Amino acid sequence: MAKVNLDTASRLDIVCRKGDSFSLSINFNTELSATASYWTMKVAETDESGDFALNLNGIENFRIENNANGVTNALMNITVPGATMAGVTAGNYVYDLQFNNGVLVKTYLYGTFLVNEDVS
């Protein structure tokens, strides 16, 4: 029996702190051939929840550039200001990082998203 697996998303669990600036660099080591405006990262309590603790979209939160090896558009930087992260309730969530240009929809990363409480 033959089998094909079209789910090529990779699991990456993230731990961050409420109120701290969020900055994550991901080196895909291959050209993404995509602009930042086509990316979203949604963080929710469950995979079926319609309420998002974070809903990051496009060029506001994503920057794509060449990596240190010179691979075009292989390094993605995701940033969220501390003021935005201060509005996220500490807790355990799930997330995914998805590309969608209206024709192709592809999930690249998924996993848990743990937000630790902060005193300050």
Taking the sheet with the most strands, its summary is: 6 strands, mixed
Q: What share of residues is helical?
A: under 10%
Shape: globular
| Mean pLDDT score | 92
- Report, as a whole number of angstroms, the end-to-end distance: 57 Å
Q: Count up the domains.
A: 1
Low-confidence stretches: none
CATH class: Mainly Beta
Q: Tell me the CATH topology.
A: Immunoglobulin-like
Structural class computed from helices and strand pairing: mainly beta
> How would you spell out the order of helices and strands?
EEEEEHEEHEE
Secondary structure tally: strands? 9
Keywords:
mainly beta; about 10% helix; about 120 residues; 3-stranded antiparallel β-sheet; about 45% strand; 2 helices; Immunoglobulin-like; 9 strands; single chain
Describe this structure in words.
With 120 residues, the chain is mainly beta. It has one domain (20-116): Immunoglobulin-like (Sandwich). 8% of the residues lie in helices and 47% in strands. The protein has two helices and nine strands. The protein has helices at 58-61, 82-86; strands at 10-11, 14-17, 22-27, 39-44, 52-57, 62-65, 75-80, 91-100, 105-116. Strands 1, 2, 4, 5, 8 and 9 form a six-stranded mixed sheet that branches. It is globular, with a radius of gyration of 15 Å. 15% of the residues are buried.
